[in-house]
Sequence to fold (435 residues):
Amino acid sequence: MVSIADYREKLFDFLLLLSSWEYRDLAQVATHPMPLRAAQHVKSAEQVPRFNNSQMDGFVVHPNDPEVVAGKPVPLLPMVAAGHNPEPLTPGFAMPIMTGAKIPEWDGPAFDDDGCDLCVVPVEETVAGFDDLTHVTFTPQATFESGRFVRYRGSDIDYDDELCAVGDHLTPARTGSLASVGLTQIAVFKPLRVLVVSTGDEVCQPGLRPGAAQIYDSNTSAAVAALSVAGAHVVGTLHAPDHPDLLLDAVRSWQADDTRRADVVVSMGGISMGAREVIRLASELEVQQGVENWYGGAQSPRLPNSGMEFCRLPMQPGGPQAVGQLAGVPWVGLPGNPVSTLVSIEVLLRTSMFGAPPRNRMSVTVHTPDGDPLSSPVGKTQMRFARLDADGSVRLEWSNSSHLLHMQADATVLVMIPQDVSAIEDGDTFEALAL
Ligand SMILES: Nc1nc2c(c(=O)[nH]1)N[C@H]1C(S)=C(S)[C@@H](COP(=O)(O)OP(=O)(O)OC[C@H]3O[C@@H](n4cnc5c(N)ncnc54)[C@H](O)[C@@H]3O)O[C@H]1N2
Ligand code: MOO
Fold:
């Protein structure tokens, strides 16, 4: 059996194969629900701050100037505002300075401590603030200390500092820091273009009238939401009945139009053990038709030389999975049960295929209904959506049957019950992903 980690790795390789990049203006990297990822490495050719500057609105002085003491009016040089180049500061004087303004050069003796830097005394430590721009009188609380409230050149970014590596998320702070060294553009991975395909004769689109044995399609809406939040660019949705030739035709004709062409199809349903599994049947049909595939002849025992590989992962829900190529398109086949579809996107696709930042992991104490033990399948990691209570514990009150989608609507965590656990006891602690 393929492990969850190995399968994620396989999907990651898929992502690398499909990835392409483009330059984006830094001011426009944040136009997607997920932070985009850098496709280049950036080292700084600049220092940030670019010059020593003031952290406060106040008065810049030499801390060891014997003329600068509390209680005695000190004459002022012209004020320096942010964006203006100051005159040098001379002995016996103070200079009004605004936050972000450049600290002046010192044009005077080193006094008794030649390692000493100028400092800024905030306006709150003066008697009259900026009301009098000829003299300043410092209060007894004023502190004269080398470098106080000075933001030093290069203290945020120095020459040659690594600002981002390939694959780093362009978070707001990283995007801003790239701009802070004067960059205008960055190479980013383009979000993968995804065609979402639902399958099954029983599935009817909301808005149409379902037949007596039909259900509404909930997977398409849920998957489009989950994939978009993961960072995919969903280019469209299709529904295919349980006829392999109709499925293949629908996808081929979708792809024939360059303006809407997808990089990858994500389908739901039609992959497990039944007699009418349309994804399996479509793959078999392509084998019969001798369709060439680049996926390398997946070694599925039922389907040698198939473009698709069908497998079962040790997790529940989300066990049945398929990956490969169908209708000439890279293809990821998810199981059709609605909760299985969402668990698969969360656990398998979100970070590995779409590059979303990993979820935070946390440890949660679980409470079972009435304190009775709950069973868990040995040999499979059980994934359970739950809502975190204020005390950091969760109640496993929702059934984990994979058709009960509505119950998961308020989930804030996905609890992962390890493979070797057969019974979940009230008060047990497990790892969870914070959603
Ligand atoms: N004999 C066995 N049967 C099944 C096994 C098994 O091991 N042996 N595995 C079960 C598990 S686990 C899952 S998960 C499902 C996966 O099956 P498929 O991926 O082939 O999905 P379908 O059979 O097409 O559909 C499953 C279920 O989900 C409903 N569905 C499908 N599409 C939608 C949609 N767009 N919106 C809402 N609901 C949808 C569908 O009606 C089925 O009820 O196989 C089990 N069977
Ligand atoms: O494992 Mo299936 O994916 O329960 O519903």
User: Anything to note?
Assistant: The mean pLDDT is 93. The chain is about 15% helix and 25% strand. The pocket of molybdate ion (ligand 2) is lined by residues 316-319, 335, 337, 340, 402 (CB under 6 Å). Residues 165 and 341 are 32 Å apart (CA to CA).
